[in-house]
Amino acid sequence: MNEEADYSDSRESSNGTAAVESKIAIITIRLTRYILAHSESQNTIISRDKLLKTLRDFYKEENCRPVVFAVIFDQVNQVLSETYGYELRGIEAKSKTAKGKAQDNSGSMTQGGGDPSSISGTTVTDAATPSLGAKATHFILLNKLAYLSHFENFKLDQTIGLYNDTIDQDEYIGDDMSRSNVNTLESRLGVDQEMALQGITCLFLCIILFSKNNILHQEIIVYLSKFGIPVDGTEIPIIGMSLDDFIKHIEKKEYIVKLEEKPTGNDNSSNMTGITIYRIGRRTKYEFDVSSLVKMLEQIMGITVDNTLLEDIKKSVGNAYD
After folding, report:
1. Same domain? 186 vs 213
2. In terms of domains, do 249 and 154 share one?
3. Residue 165's closest CA among 183, 185, 190?
4. Structural domain tally of the chain?
5. Residues whose CB is less than 8 angstroms from the CB of residue 107 and which lie 6 or more positions away in sequence, other chains included
6. Where are the stretches annotated Disordered (predicted)?
7. Distance in angstroms (rounded) separating the CA atoms of residues 216 and 185
8. Closest CA to 9 of 1, 116, 279
9. At 123, which helix (H) or strand (E)?
10. Residue 187 above 80 pLDDT?
């Protein structure tokens, strides 16, 4: 009888363990879907608190006892890697560039910065590479698929072809929906607006980077105006945003950090308007690292970046990737 009881208890225990593992597997899949949806609709950066709150809801709905977050984190990363080629990487709570007060380019960098020319001999991207793992307070979803130049060039050629269909005699006609043969909802929202937004974002970030990650608002609008981007408050063609709205958009997405210092106001006769400085945000640090910057320069300028030029690039970007 004792042997039968032991066997029965063992079988029930085994069934119970299998049931728990099945529920954990379901929760893992649900959390993976949530992370992918959040990345698509809001931001690729998500806080630990938001993940834990979502997990609590899933545990309750699946009637499952919570397990250590690190277990779920590892299982989610396994699904992301094997199925989608992504990685959920633990990152710092906030970029160091978000701390301190703004100072103009004639002075020192913002607090916590340091000498922009003093970059260690190791690759600059090393600072952005290590993951804090499940212990991090924030996480970012990164694409880890290998870069296939022929495939990416093919996609770019197709996109450029669709975009060119929205240009007629040097005039943008993408907002003329009466031309149904060209301006389908897919071609307008999925190609021209997205492509223009990506291009202007890339331009904005490169200006910041090659200003040693420290540029005044008054300076960057001069550069942008030279590229034909309206800086007078009117909407930027195609993307339908003013420059201020565009800056708010990429700041919210954490591609940039906007540092502001208001005038003290001690002198009522002062005409000071305050200082606004831009730096790259932590999302740029992980999604557009130095290796990506180098590839972009090689493709645009038709050059090969050697060690000497690489060192010049490192000096030019200042402490952006520290």
Report:
1. yes
2. yes
3. 183
4. 2
5. none
6. 97-122
7. 38
8. 1
9. none
10. no
Cβ-in-10-Å burial (0-12, 13-18, 19+) of 191 comes to: buried
d(CA 174, CA 167): 7
Residue 232 to residue 172: CA distance in whole angstroms: 20
The pLDDT confidence band at residue 104, using thresholds 50, 70 and 90, is: very low
> 9 lies in which domain range?
2-84
Tell me, yes or no, whether 72 and 203 share the same domain.
no
pTM of the predicted protein model:
0.69
Q: Where are the alpha helices (DSSP H) in the chain?
A: 2-41, 48-62, 69-79, 149-164, 185-187, 193-209, 217-226, 243-252, 282-287, 290-301, 307-316
162 and 48 both lie in a single domain? no
Which among 199, 93, 114 has a CA at the least distance from the CA of 156?
199
CA 302 to each of CA 6, 26, 233, 295, 298: distance values in angstroms, whole numbers, following the listed order? 74, 49, 35, 10, 5
Q: Do 195 and 104 fall within a single domain?
A: yes
d(CA 197, CA 212): 23
Which among 241, 313, 244, 253 has a CA at the least distance from the CA of 280? 253
For the CA atoms of 274, 277, 283, 285, what is the dihedral angle to 10 degrees?
-150
**Contact call for residues 295 and 137 (beta carbons, < 8 A):** no
- One-letter amino acid identity for 10? S
Per the CB < 8 A criterion, the answer to whether 165 and 187 are in contact is: yes
CA distance 152 to 155: 5
Q: What is the pLDDT of residues 211-254, one digit of tens each?
A: 999 999 999 999 999 999 999 999 998 888 999 999 999 999 99
* Residue given tokens 């339908």 in the structure block: 240
The amino acid occupying position 152 is E
